[in-house]
Amino acid sequence: MTQRNGTKSSGDGWLYADATKALELAKGAEQQEVCEAHDCEFEEGGRGQSRGAEAAAVTAPDGGWGWVVLVATIMVLALTLGFPSCVGIFYTDLQNEFHATNSETSWVPSIMTSVLHAGGPFCSVLVEKVGCRVTVMLGGVLSGVGMAASSFTRSIAELYVTAGVITGLGFCFSFQPAVTILGHYFVRRRPFANAMSSTGTALGLCTLPFLGNYLHTEFGWRGSFLVLGAVLLNCCVFGAVMRPLPPAKHRGQPLMKRGPPPPDQEKERTGKGRCRRVWSFVLASLKKHMAFDQLCNNPRYCVFAIGITWMMLGFVVPLVFLVPYATAHNMEQSQAAFLLSILGIVNIIVRPPFAILFNMPWFKGRHIYVFASALLLNGLSNSICCTGSSFPILVTYVIMYGISMSVVGSLMFTVLMDIVEMSRFPSALGLLAVMESVTLLIGPPLTGVLVDNTGEYSYVFIACSTIVASSALFLMASFFYLDKKERAAALQHQPCAQPDPSRPAAADSSPGCRYSSVPTEGDRNKGSPNGAEYITNV
């Protein structure tokens, strides 16, 4: 695309801004070019209507205000995804306060994490109605109110509702829209942006244990929950800067024909017609906000969803039981909390280099194998805790766990974006989150029962090692089989490489009869005949 009165940000993409009249004119010229490239009619003010297509392209900045959105996403992830691990600091106090068993106490972080994921469909509806910015801010209010109300609870059941359901739902409303809007702001640099945003979890793991331990020492668990509720309200501030990309503007539709309603419309006014409309609305909502079509028709998404769901049964459990495991072996509370901070520091140090590394062209199409390899290392690292409970051994464990966790966190959303098109990403993430929520809900309580019956925390880490490692092997084998199957099918049906009109040609393709790589399902769907990538504003 030729630049007309436009401003590029360091040669990396069109700069989204609306502060001055000059940039408004630049935006209008850019929209005119997009319309011309897609056979659009353009009129003054940037309005265009595509012929033969219902949606027009929305150019992602890949820079500019996107960097502000990236920083805000990092902070939101720090306050949401990093927070449940902080509950482990108050684990013993909650047991003593409410005279609860390990299984009963572990329901608190379990419900919080499960609702964080299970609220995905409700979050998708909110994003569609009010946008990502308002949804993130609403999540900040819910999580802050939930934690503040937790400081006044009188039973463990009340804590399930306040800290578990209300706070977890607030985390969901803040976390998922932040990840979604980041995917709209970055296309070419999406692996880098996703990896950098995942450092927010590391930042939360690094700082929240220090803050939680300090508040626990000064104010006890009730005062700590009250202050942490005020801290979570900062999600409203970070959500306020997540302004949406300007959607393509269309000309108005023709005026509706005036006249008597058709016979079918008259029938729909009856009770049976209303029931049919309600049922149709429910089915349409499920199809739109829960990607069942991807689960049935996209084998890569199906395999990924199954593997991640099984992985979550044991992936987050060590973070819940690490501090109780250390304190049960006569380690000081502050020293045990420092283990979580070391885990966060490792993530902060390791994730930025991985973000740059995974953005290299060589990793295109190989993200899933790097992800599965890191997941295998993460599962095997849990067995280190079985060798001893001294501080040096546990430091070695959190370093190994942190390195593998960094890769898993950096590539989780990148892999999902690779296997589904961006327009289906919110619903695909919503369905995956609901599936994860089941195993996230039952994982900590099941391991809590294991601790209550055996009296040993080491069995928790053995179980987690087995679950996570087996999910990694499943993902490796399944995607290798799918790649081999697609490669064989491509060679069989296209013995000589011919251009495919349904996919844009690769930038580095060369003439001749040779096969390079098999694109993922997401790459197929994202392709368009003219090589443009359509990003819909959720």
TrEMBL record:
Compartments where located: Membrane
Transmembrane segments: 67-91, 107-127, 134-153, 159-183, 195-215, 221-241, 301-325, 337-358, 370-391, 397-416, 428-451, 457-482
Annotated spans, Disordered: 249-272, 494-538
Domain Major facilitator superfamily (MFS) profile: 68-486
GO MF, one annotated term: monocarboxylic acid transmembrane transporter activity
Membrane topology: Multi-pass membrane protein
Pfam families: MFS_1
SUPFAM superfamilies assigned to the protein according to its UniProt record, in alphabetical order: MFS general substrate transporter
Recorded GO CC terms: basolateral plasma membrane
Keyword set, alphabetical order: Membrane, Transmembrane, Transmembrane helix
Lineage top rank: taxon: Eukaryota
UniProt-recorded name of the protein: Solute carrier family 16 member 5a
